[in-house]
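Z., the sequence and structure:
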Amino acid sequence: MFKKLLGSVGIGGAKVDTKLMKTSFLPGELLEGVVEIQGGQIEQKIDEIYLSLISNYSIETDNGKSERTAEIGKFKLLDSFVVYANETKSIPFRFALPYDVPITTSKTKVWIQTGLDIKMAVDPQDRDYLEIQPHPLVSEFLSVVKGLGFRLRKIEAKNAPSHLRRRLPFAQEFEFSPSSGQYRGRLDELEAVFFISENQVEVILQIDRKGGFFSERLNMDESHVRFTYGRNEVPNLSQLVTNLINQYS
């Protein structure tokens, strides 16, 4: 009876450890690994084992900027089962990362949180951080704007306004400043948000022109452009982006 009570408050109970095949991924790529459960001092019934994919993002309020977390996906591995005292169970898993997982930066983190759902107990959890690289189509865009003289200044996952909100409460914004070439002194910055699917990318591009005091205060120096491209359009992507910037700057 005493051991069962200790187990119910998390003392001497089961422990969980998730081992990934690798830790660096592209959006949409398969994530594979094994969840190892080490039984504690007592037999315990596990009601559910799950993996949650989580990211942080920032939100601005009247009190300043704060950080929130969002669950990007949740994957159930097993229903109810029993782990006996000192028993080790290994449960393999394999699932695809969603395409809207943000890339990781110094501020934006993405992790897998493994949990065991145990009634009347402190649920054992394990956190494993992932490195998310840009999708290949996004990398093509980054290469194009770099070739046009823009420097990637900042990437930030932020609370999304209604016109940018899709499945998640945030969107990841890429900010570029003109450091050389024809747009230096002509534009303040470019801002891009990417919505990725399997074969194409939708881009919301904000073009900020150099303007006077009143035009900047009234946001009259900004234009928003929406366009889509896929692998077949990559050879002409530089010309497409150049034409759009010239049209709206």
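The CA atoms of residues 150 and 179 lie 6 Å apart. The first strand starts at residue 15 and ends at 20.

Let me know what you think.
H.
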